[in-house]
From TrEMBL:
Catalytic reaction list: uridine + phosphate = alpha-D-ribose 1-phosphate + uracil
Highest taxon listed in the record's lineage: Bacteria
Record InterPro entries: Nucleoside_phosphorylase_CS (IPR018016), Nucleoside_phosphorylase_d (IPR000845), Nucleoside_phosphorylase_sf (IPR035994)
Protein name per Swiss-Prot or TrEMBL: Uridine phosphorylase
Domain Nucleoside phosphorylase intervals: 15-229
Family: Belongs to the PNP/UDP phosphorylase family.
CDD domains reported in the protein's UniProt record: PNP_ThPNP_like
GO MF annotation, one: uridine phosphorylase activity
A cellular-component GO term for this protein: cytosol
C-alpha cells in the first residue's frame, strides 16, 4: 500500500479526476458517481471510486502545489491509474477570461520546483496527452461551455505572484496561473500514462478576491462535466 494514498490494489479506477481541494473531490463523487466508495482519507487526500455512465471512474484530491500533486500522481499510477485529468481552479492573466470560464490546458510553463528536481534542471515542455487534450476540447465544445484553450503557468508561491509579474507572461500567450499541471504532465510522460487538465477561473491573478461562490460553483460544475465526458473517450 502506498505511503500517502492508502488504497488497496484494485480500488482505484484507470480513469481518475484530480481536484486540488478535498471538498471538490467529495462533491464530484457525491454528485456524479454512481455508488461512490471512499478508498482514502489519509492526510485529507480524499479519494473515491464509483461509476460514471457505467464506466469506473475515481476522483482523487491532490492537495495544493506540485510537490503534493506529484506524490499523489506517482502513487495513483502505481495503483493502476492510466488517464489522469486535473480539474482545478486558476487565476486569470488574460483579461478576456471571464469568472468561472474554463481553460483547457494545452501546455504548462514549469515555474515550480518539482519538475526541476525530476529533470535535474533540464529545460522541458510539459504538455498534456494529445488525445486527452482533444477529448477535453471536444467535450467543452459539445456541451457549449465557455472556454479557451492555451498555456498556463504552474507556480509554487500563490502570494508571490503580482498582477504586473503575471502580465509579463501574458505577452507569451499565458492565459492563467495554477499550481499542479506541469508536474502532472511531466510525470505522465515519464510513467507512460495519459494526463490532461481543465481549469475554472477562480480569480484575477494578483487579486485575492474570489469570484462569487455561486459563479465559481457553476464553473466547477461545467469543468467536472467536461472532464467526465472526456475521460469516457480515452482508453
Ligand atoms: O482549486 P485547485 O485544484 O486546488 O487549484 C488551484 O487552487 C489552489 C490555490 O488556491 C492551487 O492548488 C491551485 O492550483
Ligand atoms: O496559482 C493560482 C491558482 C489560483 N489562483 C491564483 O491566483 N493562482
Amino acid at each position: 500500500m502506498p505511503i500517502h494514498v492508502r488504497a488497496e490494489p484494485g480500488s482505484v479506477a484507470p480513469r481518475v479526476l484530480l481536484p486540488g481541494d478535498p471538498g471538490r473531490a467529495e462533491w464530484i463523487a457525491r454528485t456524479y458517481l454512481e455508488d461512490p466508495v471512499p478508498y482514502n482519507t489519509h492526510r485529507g487526500l480524499l479519494g473515491y471510486t464509483g461509476r460514471y455512465k457505467g464506466v469506473p471512474v475515481s476522483v482523487q484530491t491532490t492537495g495544493m502545489g506540485a510537490p503534493s500533486a506529484s506524490i499523489v500522481a506517482e502513487e495513483l499510477i502505481r495503483l493502476g491509474a492510466r488517464v489522469l485529468v486535473r480539474v482545478g481552479t486558476c487565476g486569470a492573466v488574460d483579461e478576456a477570461l471571464r469568472p468561472s470560464e474554463l481553460v483547457v490546458v494545452q501546455g504548462a510553463v514549469p515555474l515550480e520546483g518539482t519538475t526541476r528536481q525530476y529533470l535535474g534542471g533540464l529545460p522541458y515542455a510539459p504538455v498534456p496527452d494529445v488525445e486527452v487534450f482533444l477529448a477535453l476540447l471536444r467535450a467543452a465544445r459539445r456541451l457549449g461551455v465557455p472556454h479557451q484553450a492555451g498555456l498556463v503557468v504552474t507556480e509554487d508561491a500563490f502570494y508571490a505572484t503580482t498582477k504586473e509579474g503575471a502580465r509579463a507572461w501574458a505577452a507569451y500567450g499565458v492565459l492563467a496561473f495554477e499550481m499542479e499541471a506541469s508536474a502532472l504532465f511531466l510525470l505522465a510522460k515519464m510513467r507512460k500514462v495519459r494526463a490532461g487538465a481543465v481549469l475554472a477561473v477562480s480569480n484575477q491573478i494578483g487579486d485575492p478576491e474570489l469570484v462569487p461562490p455561486e459563479v465559481l460553483q457553476e464553473g466547477v460544475r461545467r469543468m467536472t462535466e467536461v472532464a467526465l465526458e472526456a475521460v469516457l473517450e480515452v482508453e
